[in-house]
Amino acid sequence: MASETYMPGPVCLIENMEGQLVVKQEALKILSAITQPMVVVAIVGFCSTGKSYLMNQLAGKKKGFSVGSTVQSHTKGIWMWCVPHPEKPGHTLVLLDTEGLGDVEKGDDKNDTQIFALAILLSSTFVYTTMNKIDQGAIDLLQYPCENVTELTDILRARTLPDNGVKDADDIGNFFPDLVWTIRDFYLSLERDGQLMTADEYLENSLKMKKGSDQRTQSFNLPRLCIQKFFPTKKCFVFDSPTHQKKVSQLETLKEDELSFQFVQQMAEFSSHIFNKSKIKTLPGGIKVNGPCLENLVLTYVNAIRSGDLPCMENAVLTLAQRENAAAIKRALAHYDQLMGVANISVGSFPLKILLDAKQNDICKQNEKASSDCCSALLQDIFGPLEEAVKQGLYSKPGGHNLYLQKTKELMTKYHQQLRKGIQAEEALQKYLKSKESVCNAVLQTDQALTAKEKEMEEARVKAEAAKAEAESAEVIRRQMQQRMEEKERLHQQQIRQMEIEIANILAQQHRNLAHLLQVLNQLFQPRIVFLSFLYKDESMKQ
């Protein structure tokens, strides 16, 4: 079937009308007519990261999905293009293009979360586009914030039915999409420690977890652990800039020889991988998705999101099974009526329908009981240690209530991650939590009483510390004053000693000056004294 006659261009599958997701009937009508197995490729990324261009290339067209060349997001909601698979005859390739994440005109990232989740839930190959390189922001976006683990874990819980043949959590990779990470305008060198590396090795290295158990290391490892769990099959493609910056806005009109040779080669490798490696969309239990099945999945998931419930594989499979069963009953009744003849319709069809309804109700009750018993045992196994910890008084302390709530949320997340719980999973959990409300209230009251007592003790301790600090401050001031007085006395005594030394020096100098004066006088008057003595002696002789 040629793509021109089958679906010449994309149509809106899920419209985003002011934050509300609305399924378009035109697209559902197209899906309902396709009975071939489907390979579903969805693409998600920020605005203007080349999503629509990549999808047009996969469709074998230059134009189709709207390619934006400005900062304004072009694609709104989720658009669908169904084309014959180029490598698998008898299969349909479904391309889903999504509106750009982080659109500033939207102002609410809740809608981004819903579209992101739908793209993953509906696809068998999930293409994630980023610009320039793999950074922490892009890794965190794949994780999604959530209760203690990740929002992705809550939104994409794959809870399988008891008898569907899924044996353990490793089988989750059988129906979650493969991850293809594309990086536009890649500018780094693919090498590490001087050694060349492939794009796949670059992705694996970016998702490598660190050793350690501190909070920072756990925050670093959490999104990587989430990606490794939900996307066991990963592939990475890097793209050079397709052309000169000025021509990027004309990308869909450029001829191949006007594009970068490396970009053309990289695009060919990407397309070949999608065509040859992408698997048929398959649900738990090995259900291969065709058009009507995909139609039911779209309705189930969008209705779940609009009603505020988290979409999960278990509910989708259950809803799908109910619809298929209803259709089977209708076909059985029609066949039975045909066999019985028109005259016997009133006699034959109603008993058969009653028997089928009774059998269906009986099976449903058995499933509900089996699910309820399974969930009760699982809840006791998961929450049992918490109940024992409460009995031992481990949460009877200030702040114990918050610790109790935090542990409860962790155990709820653990419960949600367990497989094969059945249709009573959520109801059993809510009943259990309600039965433990009295325990939670008791922990709260104990916490409040101990917290009030601790507050009093803290106030007393603060007052004592303040008094102690005041006394210590007064002692410091007294010591400082004493030190000042001692220093003042020391300087005073030093001045006195200095004055005494100076006086002594002055007296000594005066004594030396007097001695010198006497010496001078002695020198001046000594000759006269000698002469007078001589005269005196001479007169004496004359007499």
3D structure, described in words:
Strand 4 and strand 5 form a beta hairpin. It contains 15 helices and twelve strands. Mean pLDDT is 78; it is low at 1-5, 68-74, 145-171, 312-317 and 342-347. 58% of the residues lie in helices and 11% in strands. The termini are far apart. The chain is elongated, with a radius of gyration of 46 Å. The strands form three sheets. Strands 2-1-4-5-3-6-7-10 form an eight-stranded mixed beta sheet, sandwiched between helices. A two-stranded antiparallel sheet has the order 8-9. The chain has 543 residues and is an alpha/beta fold. The chain has helices spanning 3-6, 25-32, 51-58, 110-122, 136-143, 151-155, 199-206, 215-230, 261-277, 291-306, 313-340, 345-391, 400-417, 425-435, 437-542; strands spanning 11-17, 20-23, 38-45, 78-84, 92-98, 125-131, 178-184, 191-192, 195-196, 234-238, 282-283, 287-288. This is GB1/RHD3-type G domain-containing protein. InterPro entries: G_GB1_RHD3_dom, GBP_C, Guanylate-bd/ATL_C, Guanylate-bd_C_sf, Guanylate-bd_N, P-loop_NTPase. Keywords: Coiled coil, GTP-binding, Hydrolase, Immunity, Innate immunity, Nucleotide-binding. Pfam families: GBP, GBP_C. Belongs to the TRAFAC class dynamin-like GTPase superfamily. GB1/RHD3 GTPase family.
